[in-house]
Amino acid sequence: MYQATFHYQGVATMPFYDAADGTRLAYEDYGTGEPIVFVASWSLASDMWEYQVPFFVEEGYRCVLLDRRGHGGSDRPGTGYDFDTLADDIAGLIEYLDLRDVTIVGHSTGGAEVARYLARHGEDRVARVAFVSAMLPFVMRTEDNPEGLPIELSEAAVKQFRIDRPKWFADRAQGFYATHLGNDVSPALVEQGVRRCLETAPMAGIELWRATARTDHREGLRRITVPALVVHGAADQSALIDLTGRRTAKLIPGCVYKEYPTAGHGLFATQIDQFNGDLLEFVKG
């Protein structure tokens, strides 16, 4: 692995490192002190954490953010959107930067990636973990997971992506932030969120969507021994709380569970002070 920083018209771009399969992955690294690694949601890159990073840097923490393959400034390979490869990508960055006593924070599909990282690479470098609006423990309905959703629903969404992906995101944008419950989100912020999602490679979005629906993380969650925080919005329309957050909290031994009554999936942008405060308390604890 190696790091490089590009310059375009005198402006430095993100550093990157090479994953095991040669994919160039971009990351950001701010501050000093105890490290926090942030893993973004499906179809979002590091910029989604803009309401957390300045806060934690000012609190004395080092914030490291990864753009997963197909997202943000990273390469767009045709393969590698399974959770084993994505977990290895996280491990590669942590090992490349030689991070230790790490707090890993994952949102939505990013939370599922973090769960697979722990299951696959262990907890030697990890001090604690936070699952935020996470797509866990297992979304798809199977014989031993009757609470899950039919795979036909997942594939219906894929069909819509292939017909009119911008409309699919636009139709769900208000629900993402649960604006109907009074969350104060400007039209500009909603528009920005849709635009950021559309910057992701379309095929990467489809393959990651399918992997998220089909991957079972239940056994890995049961084996977590480091302190864990689960944060979820009761009004989450993307990761229904009875299917995800509440079940996840029951599987992780001794976890701290925080439920926000009026929060949707985008609680990182709508409940900024509450979320940042809860995460800071957890990291300090």
TrEMBL record:
Keyword match Hydrolase: yes
TM spans (from-to): none
InterPro entries in the record: AB_hydrolase_1, AB_hydrolase_fold, AB_hydrolase_sf
Domain AB hydrolase-1 intervals: 35-268
Pfam families on file: Abhydrolase_1
GO terms for cellular component: membrane
Keywords (A to Z) from UniProt: Hydrolase
Single GO molecular function: hydrolase activity
UniProt name for this protein: Arylesterase
